[in-house]
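Hey, quick one: can you model this chain's 3D structure?
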Amino acid sequence: MKNKDYIRLIISDLHLGSINSKEDKLLQLLAEVEFDELVLAGDIIDFIRVPTFTEETAEILNKIHQLGKKVIYVIGNHDIGMSKFAGKTIAGIQFANKYEFEYFNRKYKIVHGHQFDTGVTTWHYFMNFLSIVQDWAERAFGWNLASWYVNWKLRKRKLRRIWDILKWNEQADVFIMGHTHIPEVVIWVDENQSIKTYVNTGDWVEHSTYVIIKDGQVRLKKFTPEQSKPLEQSHQLLEFPSESNLFDLQEIPDKP
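Sure thing. Here's the predicted structure for all 256 residues.
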């Protein structure tokens, strides 16, 4: 009989307490997707705004607490107040600034991603103030400014920014982060003919995406209740190719 695989579920940028958090879908995800370990990759609770928690928020936190499974909490910038918890286990949850492990002879590294910010986004007090204003505007006018910001970044973003991040994490075979709210996967072959992978988990304010690691593969998926599908179109580069298919990889061009 084949040994049961160890399955990891990775989610980030839930922003619990914010008006646009997809808390109902999160509850369904935790109920429907099979996993052995849960990795919360930062910005789980939106502390830097003025969070308003709901009954669903309580259900999510209670569900996580009662999982009876290993839970890793990688601290992000919106929950940076938990930094003192790094390296400690509280209520069964292991807090960390990064999470590293090996799986199928590949080295994995998970961080939130705010560590790589530059410019005005590193002005913490200003960003805290801006987040409070953003929270008020979203509640008062029904706007989703986080989605607008992500779309604006997509228009400006260059692939070089990803490569800069990867240079600082080149020892990892698979590098996973959140923070940008842009779900995406990049796979390439380095100068040593090793397969390298960058995965961004996306978010639960707009995209409702998650990463699942099982069967020796890493997959980025969009959650649809009772039917979790891999992302389509430009994000469908989702799993490790076999060695025989190594040279069949093709770059998926950006849409005009």
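One thing worth noting: The chain has a mean pLDDT of 79.
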